[in-house]
Amino acid sequence: MIVGVPRETYPGEKRVALVPAVLANLAKAGLQVLIETGAGTAAGYPDPEYSDKGAKIAASRAEVFAQAEIITQVLCDGANDKTGHADLPLMRRGQILLGFLRPLGSSQVLQELAATGVSSFAVELMPRTTRAQSMDALSSMATMSGYKAVIVAADTLPRIFPMLTTAAGTITPGRVLIIGVGVAGLQAIATARRLGAVTSAYDMRPAAKEQVLSLGGRFVELPIEAKDAQDARGYATAQGEEFYKKQRELLGSAVAGSDVVITAAVVPGKKSPVLVTQDMVARMAPGSVIVDLAAERGGNCELTQAGKTVRSHEVSIIGTFNLASSVPYHASQMYAKNISSFLLNLVKDGKLQINEKDEIHRETLLTQGGEIVNARVREFVGLKPLSGEVGVK
Ligand code: NAD
Q: CA-to-CA distance for 298 and 212, rounded, in angstroms?
């Protein structure tokens, strides 16, 4: 079977779906890779590195789509809301598509994708089980974002992070606060600690406390309890406005006392809760930095502008999204490992075998045969459940 890797087209996107190092394992499973020329260049993987590992190089994008039975991308239509749509006419019924698809996004976009007849698998829907861990691209990319958020903050802050005792005096350490301790937040804690900052973190899920402490961070305890803070899949649940209001009041002094605040508090499929208000920003010291990793979904800071850095009350509020793409070499390496593990799980003896009894297949399969087949997504977009199909509850 041929696995096609088109060049990413989202503006500024530098990652690539497969890197040369994973090709040998794919070849053993009977998968030949066809890559659009230049697809890996921006990530640091030039064409010859792919051909050395046995890949074929396609001169055009149309050739990749025409020849491949399976297409894998980082940002497919849906997740690529700028240019992803242009790929739809290149897809055909029965072709497999694998990548970020933003399954809890626009229902119209999902319907258009379904109408092409492709069998698409959304990596965002990967179950959180030990078996699926090597395929969990959301976590890989969150790891990259958490790391890079701290690097960007350190670069913007007019102070340094570590404590220094020198002949020229003593420098006090930077104070970093992380709000939202998921995968991104945990990596942000680890990175801020490595740079020498005094690092605190807060999450509404009580289970996060132990993780924060194990990384050497201080846990910010607030005297409020979320109702059913996490669902069965380990994700945070949406809370009422009253709860968020209380959180904001209680977080005020922790935010004011920090040089850097990294916010990464998200609820899947929902607008991000506002946890840092304009008044809280105004209480921060001049030159402080907020990196809002929730910017794409509205932001955790009231002043965040998605995709931009704004300065307000002498504080820089960075709403850049897709930080993983700014470290494309390693982000692609991790993503390629996730995708190749997924491919090896889907393909047996050189043939694609979608098995509805396998929860990895069942939960990630988004569209098939012209329809949205995923039960969770159908419910999310208000469609009736299908009967007798893959993806039915
Ligand atoms: P996420 O990206 O869904 O959300 C980020 C964090 O924001 C979460 O920790 C959430 O509790 C927090 N949050 C949401 N609303 C908040 C609010 N109002 N106030 C404070 N915090 C708020 O998180 P994630 O990266 O998916 O990780 C969530 C948990 O799942 C973590 O414990 C992580 O280690 C775990 N996880 C497990 C697996 C696995 O078992 N395979 C895979 C990935 C993540």
A: 25
Q: Whose CA is nearest to atom 15 of ligand 1?
A: 265
Task: Read off the DSSP letter of residue 44.
Answer: T
- Distance between CA atoms of 85 and 227, rounded to whole angstroms? 40
Superfamily of 145-321 according to CATH: NAD(P)-binding Rossmann-like Domain (3.40.50.720)
As a whole number of angstroms, the distance between CA 68 and CA 311 comes to: 47
Of the candidates 77, 87, 136, 292, the residue annotated as catalytic is 136
Q: Which CATH number is correct for 2-136+328-381, 3.40.50.720, 3.40.50.2300, 2.40.300.10, 3.30.360.10?
A: 3.40.50.720
Ligand 1 contact via 264 beta carbon (within 6 Å): yes
Q: Decide: 182 in ligand 1 pocket, CB within 6 A.
A: yes
* Active-site annotation holder among 218, 235, 283, 297: 235
SS3 content of the chain, % helix, strand, coil (to 5): 35, 20, 45
Q: Annotated catalytic, 119?
A: no
The token duo for 45 is 């993987």
What residue ranges do the domains of the chain occupy? 2-136+328-381, 145-321
**Using CA positions, which residue lies closest to atom 44 of ligand 1?**
183
- The verdict on the CB of residue 236 being under 6 Å from ligand 1 is yes
Ligand 1 midpoint to CA 210 (Å): 13
- What is the distance, to the nearest Å, from the Cα of residue 23 to the centroid of all Cα atoms in its chain? 24
CB 258 within 8 A of CB 288: yes
136 classed as catalytic: yes
Per-residue pLDDT tens listing for the chain (393 residues): 999 999 999 999 999 999 999 999 999 999 999 999 999 999 999 999 999 999 999 999 999 999 999 999 999 999 999 999 999 999 999 999 999 999 999 999 999 999 999 999 999 999 999 999 999 999 999 999 999 999 999 999 999 999 999 999 999 999 999 999 999 999 999 999 999 999 999 999 999 999 999 999 999 999 999 989 988 888 899 999 999 999 999 999 999 999 999 999 999 878 999 999 999 999 999 999 999 999 998 999 999 999 999 999 999 999 998 999 999 999 999 999 999 999 999 998 889 999 989 999 999 999 999 999 999 999 989 999 987 655 443
